[in-house]
């Protein structure tokens, strides 16, 4: 099991963001560079940088900031949000981004996904495909557009058939946000797709939740705003990752 901290960027700032809730979005009173440095000081090896602006239908991306953050001391940076054409993917690659998260393109620009699959300049193992479920419904474009006619299992199989082994599956229940991750859901995913490199996200509030996901052989979890708002949590995550790496 590996814990990947997520850092949300909105309007060039670090944001405290809940999926799809743009009305109540707030900002952390921290500079993104300082947060990256603190993560590095705690020997965090990889983070997910989520460009909230770029996830929307008419995206305004934070490419300049992402390029600067990619040159910091974090060994591996994965970027999510608005990666829907090859020029943008290449610009991220040239800036030093290590992993690329494809989400909405799976629904509305699959020709681009196929182009990525066939491209020589990016390894398929550096591609992560993200699927977001809100109250059981697949969504895209920053949780703002429902996909009622799509089947998650079929999409994951399509992902594997096209040579991509890494999936991030976020599962949000707005009625029970404190209930923790849906273990039965992730268990079904693991049983159906044993070769998938599976990352879970959503409602992961404790190390007990993380251990439970590890026990059903989830490979990674993504932790969001809490890591920057709860004293000591960053050090705990670093220690957890180090212990898991030595196990």
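Q: What amino acid sequence fits the structure above?
A:
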């Amino acid at each position: 099991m590996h814990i990947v901290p997520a850092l949300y960027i909105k309007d060039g700032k670090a944001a405290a963001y809940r999926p799809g809730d743009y009305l109540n979005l707030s900002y952390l009173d921290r500079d993104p560079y300082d947060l990256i440095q603190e993560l590095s000081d705690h020997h965090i090896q990889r983070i997910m940088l989520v460009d909230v602006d770029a996830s929307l239908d008419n995206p305004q991306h934070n490419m300049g900031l992402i390029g600067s953050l990619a040159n910091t001391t974090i060994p591996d940076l994965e970027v999510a949000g608005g990666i829907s054409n090859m020029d943008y993917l290449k610009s991220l690659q040239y800036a030093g981004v290590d992993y690329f998260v494809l989400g909405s393109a799976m629904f509305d620009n699959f020709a681009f996904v196929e182009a990525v699959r066939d491209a020589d300049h990016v390894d398929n193992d550096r591609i992560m495909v993200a699927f977001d479920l809100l109250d059981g419904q697949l969504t895209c474009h920053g949780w703002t557009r429902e996909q009622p006619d799509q089947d998650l299992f079929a999409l994951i199989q399509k992902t594997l058939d096209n040579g991509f082994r890494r999936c991030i599956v976020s599962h949000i229940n707005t009625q029970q946000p404190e209930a923790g991750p849906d273990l039965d859901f992730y268990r079904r995913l693991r049983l159906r797709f044993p070769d998938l490199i599976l990352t879970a996200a959503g409602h992961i509030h404790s190390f007990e939740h993380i251990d439970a996901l590890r026990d059903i052989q989830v490979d990674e979890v993504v932790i969001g705003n809490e890591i920057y708002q709860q004293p000591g949590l960053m050090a705990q995550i670093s220690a957890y990752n180090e212990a898991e790496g030595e196990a």
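Q: And what stands out in the fold?
A: The chain has one domain: 2-246.
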